[in-house]
Structure formats: C-alpha cells, structure tokens
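Feature request, filed as a ticket because there's no other form

It would be nice if the structure record came with a short human-readable summary line next to the tokens. Right now we just get the raw output. Example of a typical job, pasted below so the devs can see what we mean:
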Amino acid sequence: MLPREFLCSHNPAKTQVNSCDTATMPPVFGHHRAIQTLTAAIDAGRMHHAWIFSGPTGIGKFLLAKETGAILIEGRAAKPLGTGLRPDSNCGRLLASESHPDLHVIHRKLAALSSNPSLRERKQMNIPLDLLRETMLGGRTSDGRIHEAAAYRTPALSDRKVFIINEAELLDASGQNALLKTLEEPPSETYIFLVTNRPERLLPTIWSRCQHLPMAPLEPSEMQSWMRETAFEAEGDDLELILDFAEGSPGMAFMAHDRNALEWIRSLNPLLQNLDQGQWSEGIATGFFERIDAYAKAVVSENPKSSKSAANLEACETMLRIIGRHERLALRRATDVNVMVRHCGIIDRIADAEQQMQSGLNLKHVLEGLTAEWAGSSS
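Raw output as currently delivered:
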C-alpha cells in the first residue's frame, strides 16, 4: 500500500488533501459493507480481537483501520464509523495525529526511529522481528536489549489498546511466527489490525486467528466524491487517464498525479502498440527498465533509508499496471476469438512477470522475456 507520508508530501499546492491535516481524520469513501460489518460487531460488543483488512493498493484500508481504532478507543463518543473524526477533544487530536499512546501504528519506516543502530541503519525493505519486538511483542532484540511487550501494557488514557500493522505482508516469517502467540492469546481489550494488499503472503496460521475483511476498489461515483472532498486538481484528458489508471484507488490516483504515471502511460502506448503488432527490439525492454530505475532513484533520493530494491518493485508494479491496462482495453475491443485468446495469454504472461519480479529475478531479463514473448505471440 502507498504510505501515508507519500500521499501527504507531494505537490501540496496542487492537491489539498485532508488526510495530511493532523487536525482531522477524513471520512472513509466506499467500503459500505466493511463499515456495516465493523459497526455491527462494535455495537453488539462482539468485536473480534484480530482482523485482516485486505484489498488493492491505495483504496483506504489503513484509513478504515485507523478510524476503527479511534472508535474502539473513544467509545461511542466518536462519530459513526466511516464519517471521519473531528478531534474536538484532546483524545481526538491525539488519535488524528497518531500520537495517542493507546493507538500504535507499525510500519517498516519506524525502523529509522529505533534505538537499535543496526535496525535504524538498515534499508527499509520489510518489517523485521526486532522492530515488532520493540513496538509490540517485547523480548530480546539483536542488540541484546530486552523490551517490555507494549501489547500487554495497561492502556494509558483509555480502556483499550489498538495495534495497526500497515503493509503487513512485509512481516518476515520469524515476525509472523512470533505474532502468533499474541493473536492466539490476546491481552484483554487489545485489538490488532493487519492491513495488506498481499494477503496471500500471510501464514495460514495467521489467517486462522483473524477475521478477514476483504475490500474492493471504489465505485466511480465514490471516486468522484473523493476527488471533490480532497480538491484533487485534474481535468480533461489528464483526469480521464488518472481515473482509468487508478481503477477505484485514491492512492493510485495520487501516484498518477505525482509520480509521472501519466507520462509513462502516454510514452509507453506506442511501444505497446508495436508489441501488439509483433515488432520487438531490445530497446523496448531497455526503455521499460530505464523508467523503473529512474523512479527508484527518485524514491531513494527523497529518503536515503529507502530500499532501492523495494522502490524497484513499486515501480515495476506501476509499469505492469499500465501494461495490463493496455491489454485489458485491447481485449475489450477485440472481436476475433483468436485475438481475444492472444490478449488473454499476454495478460497471464504479465501476471507471471510480476511473480518473477517478486521472486527476485533480474528485472531487465524479466522485461526482455515478457516483451519478446508478447511480440512473438502477435506474429
């Protein structure tokens, strides 16, 4: 998922985004069924202690987890779930700014604030066990220090504690295994939310201890409401391209606006059309790779602690999203059965390429293989 600080740090003059204002928590757009499920559980006093919120990147999973946590901590004094939080009290202000001592948000970039030098200086590729021990589970970390388990402390200002692990798919295997005991025998009035766009990367034993709440992209009308609320500035062809690229994800709309995705879409279209016509050259894959590399270098330039490998994968996902969009549109336009089958095969091959990239294979080689097979299928 796009991190909150990314959504709030780019082009503030162009997009006035309420989620960047620490004086308020914005409303959740869409996800009506998820909100109804959570509201019913809270009102009935049967709120499960551990949840997996899953769905595509940037659709508001983290925001819903944070607002659910605020409701649990503030009780019924808070506004109805999904309507946002106006911090009219000191508790509300602390919740909105993520500084409430009973609301714990865990993500990979917290490593930069660690007291452990090796953890603080490492590249931010995942959520390692040491970080989980420092922020939630307690125990001995690799620097020899023993940490108290925050999950088992008495709440500081309320009767409940909430832990939100954002990008939970980045928990390594040892971290997930260490989390199992807390999920199986949770402290009283402690709630845990695992937010992920890759739920398949969570261990089956994690799944068995959590309630799963899948979420879908926003509907077009919900995206339009979100754009009005956030004063998202785009119009004409740019707006149409952004909405098409985002596919119901506000986070991806921000990426299209702030990370040159529109330029990628426009510049890649001629190359993709060449592949559709069976025209391949090594320069096509090289062009793809150069865009990915430039994107990753920009991310690392902004945050030297960022992992270039992780930034490469983020850029690859964007690239493959654009390529997949091109092929899905071509499939919709096709009338010949053989052409439809070919486009379906290319879409499957794009999915294979994404798995290869996630497995750590050489990006340039993966792109060369994908584009060569793509062009070959057209001949």
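Something like this underneath would help us a lot:
The mean pLDDT is 85.
Strands lie at 50-54, 103-106, 139-140, 146-147, 161-166, 190-196, 211-214.
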